[in-house]
Write a structure and sequence with these properties.
alpha+beta, six-stranded antiparallel sheet, 9 helices
């Protein structure tokens, strides 16, 4: 076989093979790699809004659970500190009684006279009177017969205190576990909501903002009638009880409102009580603490522990509690408006008081 002819045949076969491979491997115009489907594709803006609302609501419920567990843990820590101090005092009492009984026994064995003034100082209700008269010292000596019984009582007290401290410690650990579980739930819900919002197209974001503005307008209309007239006042077409008494804030309420309004623009951070960020109940509790009237930390505790007033008599400084589970709170500032820390990703702002389902109104300091 001619070498040149064979080489040309091999070269031709190689070129053909390379061409076929190139055709097979090259991406065709109609066969591009499929994109990951958009989880929001096909959803209406109302559906997206409802999904976000649901996620942030669940996060807020978890936030209140976190705050409640944190409050419980803080109270238990304080109680545990007190118990430990009581234990220390009880242990010292037992030791003092033991030493006193031993000293008395040794003195009696030697036929001597125990310095009764020391006994009076230890056992007497009024040790300042121990040196008044020698007879009091003799009475204190006779009181030594009760040392044994007193020592037994002190030991029983020590045992009770120890048992209570152990129980409190177990509950404290349980509360901290609840708090950690709530924290994980909050972070998961917030992360999901933030992923959805970050994935929205520009047009979707614009329409979502427009929807929120319309919802705010409707909420304001539910609280007041045409022209700002309180609903149900008989002026205009409002029906039902007239919300908001319209009384100007004064005293502590004015201070609380002033504090809350001064926080506008600061971010919502779950579990925060200031000064750089707040959650909803963190804002209201901090505001009333600044006004000199500390109130419970959580919105649920505020609803359960403060004086309830009718919606129609709401006045600036009152707290409006939202949702059936009392998991959101804002401070009424008058004119159908309230100031609140809305949710993660938002800042403290004012909003129509009827922006969310109202559970009721409470009045701190009443």
């Amino acid at each position: 076989m001619n070498v040149s002819t064979g080489g040309r045949r091999l070269l031709g076969r190689g070129a053909t093979t390379a061409l076929v491979c190139a055709i097979l491997l090259a991406p065709g115009p109609g066969h591009a790699a499929p994109r990951e489907p958009d989880p929001q594709a096909g959803k209406s803006i109302e559906d997206i809004r409802a999904e976000l609302d649901g996620l942030y609501r669940e996060a807020e419920v978890a936030t209140e659970a976190y705050n409640a567990a944190n409050e419980k843990a803080a109270k238990q820590e304080k109680r545990l500190t007190t118990l430990r101090k009581d234990l220390t005092r009880a242990e010292q009492r037992v030791k003092d009684l033991r030493d006193l009984a031993g000293a008395a026994a040794r003195t009696q064995y030697r036929g001597g006279d125990l310095a009764a003034t020391g006994i009076q100082l230890l056992l007497g209700d009024h040790p300042d009177q121990a040196l008044d008269e020698a007879s009091q010292a003799r009475q204190a000596m006779r009181g030594l017969v009760n040392v044994s019984e007193t020592q037994k009582t002190a030991r029983e007290e020590l045992s009770d205190q120890t048992e209570a401290a152990t129980k409190e410690l177990r509950e404290l650990k349980s509360s901290r576990a609840d708090k950690a579980a709530a924290k994980q739930k909050i972070e998961k819900k917030i992360a999901t909501a933030e992923r959805i919002e970050a994935g929205l197209e520009e047009e979707q974001t614009r329409r979502l903002a427009a929807l929120e503005r319309e919802r705010a307008r409707q909420a304001e209309a539910r609280w007041t009638g045409p022209g700002g007239t309180p609903a149900g006042s008989g002026k205009g077409k409002g029906k039902g009880p007239a919300p908001g008494g319209g009384t100007q804030a004064s005293g502590a309420a004015a201070k609380a409102v002033g504090f809350a309004m001064a926080q506008i623009g600061k971010p919502y951070v779950w579990g925060a009580v200031g000064p750089s960020s707040y959650d909803c109940s963190g804002l209201t509790s901090a505001a009333w603490a600044a006004a000199g009237h500390p109130i419970p930390r959580t919105s649920q505790a505020q609803w359960g522990g403060l004086t309830r007033v009718s919606l129609s008599s709401a006045r600036p400084g009152d707290l409006i509690i939202y949702y059936n589970d009392a998991t959101h709170v804002g401070m009424y500032i008058g004119g159908g408006q309230m100031v609140h820390a809305p949710r993660p990703g938002r800042s403290i702002t004012t909003a129509p008081a009827a922006s969310m389902p109202v559970l009721g109104v409470v009045r701190p300091g009443a």
